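Sequence, please.
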C-alpha cells in the first residue's frame, strides 16, 4: 500500500477509534467477563438465575420449585478499574410482607469485600437502573453484587466507564463451595439486605463460594432434595432445615438425607445445627415443644452416626448460635433479624473452620 494511502486511511479510521474509546463499556448478562457464583447448576441453567435445574422439576415439590426461581445467595462478580458502575435489572415489586423490602427485592453492591450500597425498584414494573461511584481513582477493584432473597431476578447489563478494564473476579481460597440446605432462615428471610443472610456473611469471612438451598417454609428434608444436594461437589454440607418439619418428620427425614449424601460423598464434612432459641419455649406452646424435641434429637442422631463410624458428621448446638439471652436477635420471635444473622454466622464460623482445616476465627 502506498505510504500516502496508508496515512489517509489512518486519519479516516481515527475518529472511529476515538468514538469507540469514548463509548461506555456495556456488558450484557450473561457474559464470560462476569462470574456467577452460588448456583450449583449454572452451566446447565444459564441464563436463568434459578437454584435448581429444569430436569429436576418433576421430582421437586411445586412450592420448592417456585422458591428455587429466587436467586438467594447468588452473586455476580467482576474486577474493573471503572469508577462508575451502572446496573440494569428487573426484580419484583414490594408487597406487604413480614420481610424488609431491600432484602426481598433489592441488590447489594460490595467493593473489595466491603458494603458499598444498595438499590431496589422504584416502580411497580420492578425495573432497576442504578449507577454507583465505586471509588475516586482509576484502579482495579473487586465488585460483587448480591441478588435478592425474595423474588426471581433478571440481570440485563452492567455498564462501566469508557475504556475501563475488565478482568475475571479472583478465585476463592477454596475450590469447592459450602452447601446450605434449610428453611426461610437459611434463605435469608427477615434480614435487612441480601448480602447479610448468614451464608453470605460466612462467604465473605471465609473467602469461600457457597450455595444457598434454603426454601422458605419448605425445608422439609424430602429425598428429592437430598438427591439434588448430593449432586454438588461440596467442601461441606450444612443441614440447617430444623425449622420447618415437625419433630417426627425431622427425626424421620434426617437419617435418610444423610444416607443419600453419604452414598456420593462418604467423607465430606456435614454439620447438623439444632434449633436456636425461640421465646415460645418459655411458655409451653406447641412450637416451643417442637423446638425442644428437635433440639434433643439432633445431638443424639449425630452421636449415633459418629459411633457407627462416620467421623465427619458434626453437631452444632443451636444455643451457641442464638441463645435465650440473645432473643432480641429475632424479628418475629422466630426468624433471625440482621443481628441474628450475624450471630448465626459467628456461631457457625468456628465449626466450619475446624472441619475445613482453616485458620481459627478472628475476634468478631
Amino acid at each position: 500500500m502506498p505510504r500516502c494511502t496508508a496515512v489517509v486511511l489512518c486519519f479516516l479510521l481515527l475518529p472511529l477509534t476515538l468514538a469507540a474509546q469514548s463509548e461506555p463499556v456495556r456488558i450484557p448478562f450473561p457474559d464470560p467477563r462476569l462470574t456467577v457464583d452460588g448456583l450449583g447448576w449454572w452451566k446447565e441453567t444459564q441464563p436463568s438465575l434459578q437454584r435448581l435445574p429444569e430436569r429436576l422439576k418433576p421430582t421437586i415439590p411445586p412450592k420448592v420449585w417456585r422458591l428455587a426461581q429466587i436467586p438467594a445467595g447468588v452473586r455476580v462478580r467482576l474486577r474493573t478499574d471503572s469508577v462508575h458502575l451502572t446496573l440494569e435489572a428487573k426484580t419484583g415489586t414490594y408487597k406487604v410482607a413480614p420481610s424488609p423490602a431491600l432484602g426481598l427485592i433489592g441488590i447489594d453492591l460490595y467493593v473489595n469485600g466491603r458494603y458499598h450500597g444498595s438499590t431496589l425498584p422504584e416502580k411497580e414494573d420492578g425495573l432497576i437502573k442504578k449507577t454507583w461511584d465505586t471509588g475516586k481513582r482509576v484502579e482495579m477493584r473487586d465488585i460483587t453484587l448480591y441478588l435478592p432473597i425474595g423474588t426471581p431476578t433478571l440481570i440485563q447489563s452492567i455498564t462501566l466507564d469508557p475504556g475501563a478494564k475488565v478482568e475475571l473476579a479472583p478465585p476463592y481460597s477454596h475450590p469447592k463451595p459450602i452447601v446450605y440446605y434449610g428453611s426461610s432462615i437459611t434463605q435469608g428471610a427477615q434480614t435487612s439486605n441480601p448480602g447479610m443472610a448468614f451464608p453470605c456473611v460466612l462467604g465473605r469471612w471465609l473467602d469461600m463460594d457457597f450455595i444457598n438451598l434454603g426454601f422458605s417454609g419448605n425445608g422439609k428434608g424430602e429425598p428429592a432434595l437430598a438427591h439434588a444436594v448430593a449432586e454438588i461437589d461440596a467442601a461441606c454440607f450444612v443441614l440447617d432445615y430444623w425449622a420447618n418439619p415437625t419433630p417426627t418428620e425431622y427425626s424421620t427425614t434426617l437419617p435418610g438425607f444423610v444416607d443419600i449424601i453419604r452414598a456420593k460423598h462418604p467423607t465430606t464434612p456435614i454439620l447438623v445445627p439444632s434449633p436456636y432459641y425461640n421465646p415460645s419455649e418459655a411458655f409451653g406452646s406447641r412450637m416451643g415443644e417442637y423446638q425442644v424435641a428437635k433440639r434433643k434429637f439432633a445431638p443424639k442422631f449425630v452421636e449415633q452416626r459418629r459411633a457407627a463410624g462416620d467421623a465427619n458428621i458434626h453437631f452444632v448446638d443451636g444455643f451457641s448460635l442464638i441463645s435465650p439471652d440473645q432473643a432480641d436477635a429475632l424479628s418475629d420471635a422466630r426468624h433471625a433479624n440482621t443481628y441474628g444473622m450475624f450471630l448465626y454466622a459467628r456461631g457457625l464460623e468456628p465449626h466450619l473452620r475446624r472441619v475445613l482445616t482453616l485458620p481459627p476465627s478472628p475476634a468478631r
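The CA atoms of residues 212 and 267 lie 21 Å apart.
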